[in-house]
Structures are given as structure tokens and as C-alpha cells.
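seq:
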Amino acid sequence: MKRDTLFLLPPGFFDNDRREYCPECAEIWGLLSYYPAIKESLEIVYQPIEKPRAGLVALLGDKNQNCPTLVLDADNPRYDDAGIMQKNGHYFINNARDMGRYFAKRFGTAWPRGS
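struct:
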């Protein structure tokens, strides 16, 4: 199995004159703690809070710098109803709930409530 790349903001970054965390990134970390096998299938890359976020810009351009973002390996499956987008020849998902749906379809995990 080839690895997808998950781009996240680090926990406890400094912004707005205080330490903060990204709620959507924390949601993904929670999901990965429920299903550690998914975590093992990913390459996890932390991006800075400041933009431009070089890792994402290099793959998806400067208009796609959201974290969390899951960039799918070209050989891994894609599903029509999992919020997958395409840019620069890469398929990606840029929000936590769609990632939850993707993982449910791909790995057979539980579905996000309301999906």
C-alpha cells in the first residue's frame, strides 16, 4: 500500500498572541487515535501557521493551503462522494469530515456522525 500524505498544523502553535490549536487537525488526530492502522498508512507533514505553507503550495498551488489536507497517492483509491478535489495532477481532501468519510470507505472504519 502506498502512503497518502496528511498535512496538519502542529498542536500548540503561536498565533493571535497566544498558543492555539486547529480544531479540524485535532479532529483528525482523534480519528487516528481511534484507528492507529490508518496513521501507520500515512506520511504526516506539519505545516507552519504562517503562509505560504511550502509543502502544500508545492503540490497544490497557493490557493490550496488549508490544514488538514490529505493528498492521495496516485495509486490509492478515490471515491466520488468523499469530497476529493484535483489540482496540478494531485487528488486531495481538505477538510476533516470528508477525510472521515474517505477513511470509512477505504478502511472500513466508523462513519462521521451526520454523514
